[in-house]
Write a structure and sequence with these properties.
Pfam families: Peripla_BP_2. Residues 1-19 form the signal peptide. By secondary structure, this protein is an alpha/beta fold. Helices cover 38% and strands 15% of the residues. The protein has helices at residues 3-9, 14-19, 70-76, 97-103, 121-126, 141-148, 167-177, 181-201, 228-235, 244-248, 276-284, 286-289, 292-295, 307-314, 319-335; strands at residues 45-49, 52-56, 63-65, 83-85, 110-112, 131-134, 153-155, 210-216, 219-223, 253-255, 268-273, 299-303. The chain has a five-stranded mixed β-sheet with strand order 10-9-8-11-12, sandwiched between helices. Helix 8 (181-201) packs parallel to helix 15.
Length: 338
């Protein structure tokens, strides 16, 4: 797995990715990805993005997700893709528990496995897709051009850093691409209302500083304002540390130097960890032990091998409702510790 994918996942789920229980046989997804002809009236549709624009002439029936979270938006819209790209978690079809109900009886998608992060061109072509989604991704222009010879490709708008597109945009763009924009808008409105309700129910978050971080290659790694995890905190009422945007620059996050350990000193920090050992290593770091956030226990540790830990990285229209139920109470407890 590439360093970027490891950091996106929060850390060391590479072994789970390599273990792989998804089926790479394109025939295993036969029947998945069917889109109702009721969407036909929405076509053709043109979607503008980082590399120009893509015209989709008719309702797609065989959708491949090269991006890492788009399957959730599709499933929420009642569509199962023929293939997904595995990020972490080793789940059949790369479909997580919070999305299984939406899948219903549809067959599991073929899982495209790429430990290095390389696009699986031959496997994708063999699936005969009529739409390729690469929104939550870092698809290079050369790869976009190659994929476009296979099927129409939709990537993120140019204003977002790679892996920085908000879940709302993922949902609405996917909705347009499959001819279901009104349904997508309703889904976004519903989840945004849940977020607003959670914020209103927890006024203790207002004015408090929050942060999401992980531990990678022997040092902390912090997720910035353009990362969906950081955006989730600000949506709930938290502010991010002063100087975080300047520190991470144009990336979704950055390794944290010892000299900037002050960025960890917030009112509630969420750590994504791979094991209890990593948790202890973090808590024992001299620069971290001196910080009030550590001394007062204003920490939430999420195990990346659990559904909650995985939902905390996925940040989608389907994972957020689950995350609100499970994570928000822990954040509330953390900020109240004195």
């Amino acid at each position: 797995m590439s360093k970027v994918l490891s950091l996106l996942a929060g850390l060391a789920l590479a072994l789970l990715v390599l273990a792989g229980c998804g089926d790479d046989d394109p025939s295993s997804a036969t029947g998945a990805g069917t889109v109702s002809t009721a969407a036909g009236a929405a076509f053709p549709v043109t979607i503008t993005h980082r590399y120009g624009s893509t015209e989709i002439e008719r309702a797609p029936e065989r959708i491949v997700t090269v991006g890492l979270v788009e399957q959730d938006a599709l499933l929420a819209l009642g569509i199962t893709p023929v293939a997904t790209t595995e990020w972490f978690g080793d789940r059949p079809g790369a479909i997580f528990p919070w999305a299984k109900d939406e899948q219903g009886d549809a067959p599991d998608p073929t899982v495209l496995k790429s430990p290095t992060g390389a696009v699986q061109f031959e496997k994708i072509a063999a699936l005969r897709p009529d739409l390729i989604l690469a929104l939550y991704a870092d698809l290079k222009k050369t790869d976009y051009d190659k994929l476009s010879r296979i099927a129409p490709v939709v990537v993120a708008p140019k204003q977002y850093v790679p892996y920085g597109i908000p879940w709302q945009d993922v949902t609405t763009i996917v909705g347009r691409a499959v001819g279901r924009p009104a349904q997508a808008a309703e889904l976004v409105d519903g989840v945004e209302q849940q977020l607003a309700d959670a914020k209103a129910a927890h006024p203790e978050f207002a004015g408090r500083r929050g942060l999401v971080a992980t531990y990678f290659e022997g040092k902390p790694y912090v997720y910035g304002p353009q990362d969906p995890r950081g955006r989730l905190l600000t949506t709930l009422g938290f502010s991010l540390p002063d100087g975080l945007q300047e520190y991470v620059g144009t990336e979704f996050g950055r390794d944290l130097s010892e000299e900037r350990a002050d960025l960890l000193d917030v009112d509630a920090i969420t750590w994504l960890v791979a094991s209890d050992k990593d948790r202890q290593v973090i808590r024992d770091r001299p620069t971290y032990r001196r910080l009030p956030v550590r001394q007062k226990g204003r920490e939430v540790f999420l195990d990346e091998t659990t559904t909650l830990g995985q939902a905390a990285s996925f940040i989608s229209v389907l994972s957020i409702p689950y995350l609100l139920d499970e994570l928000v109470p822990q954040l509330s407890t953390a900020v109240e510790r004195e």
